[in-house]
Amino acid sequence: xxxxxxxxxxxxxxxxxxxxxxxxxxxEQYDHYQKQTFRNRCIIAAADGAxxxxxxxxxxxGSKYPMKDIRISDHGNWRHLHWNALVSAYQATPFFExxxxxxxxxxxxxxxxxxxxxxxxxxxxxxxxxxxPVIKRTIAYGEPAAEVDLRSAxxxxxPREDSxxxxxxxxxxxxxxxxxxxxxxxxxxxxxxGPESLLVLRDSIRK
Length: 207
What we know:
Elements: E1 2-6, H1 13-21, E2 24-28, E3 41-46, E4 49-54, H2 78-90, H3 96-103, H4 114-129, E5 135-137, E6 148-149, H5 175-178, H6 186-193, H7 197-203
Parallel strand pairs: 1-2, 1-6, 2-5
Antiparallel strand pairs: 3-4
């Protein structure tokens, strides 16, 4: 099975579950950049509940600008703020201390393009979870055509119904306070479950 997905910043568990099942995953790089999406936003579980972390991007001309050309902005010292938010949210999780040195460099090095930053983080996550997906970027908008198009399904606002993805509960540090929060960023699963993350992903997709 081939799937087509948007580029995402520390994307939701749903996206990684689909990538685990797919034979080939195409990442759309020619779509028009949209604000308030997972392209530059992830959602983590913090002490006050679900917390969105948003990467600022450089201003661009017009409303139709391809994702592949979107540049990261240094505005607001976001790297420092994001890293501190991750430490604060996950320092009490079972596996943060094992993985923090793998993620810290991403918040110390400057990437020019958002899609390259997202791709580099994905590669690290695949390594830590022991996933081996075949990932390719599109060569034109929506091409090659994929069997399953998830570009509009994986979104923080008004997500399309997904009868295949079934979020599987797992341990979360703040679960007693807020209950289980489904489909957060993949790092929520990784920091809480470590090597068992792969099992949770496998159980989250209907066969």
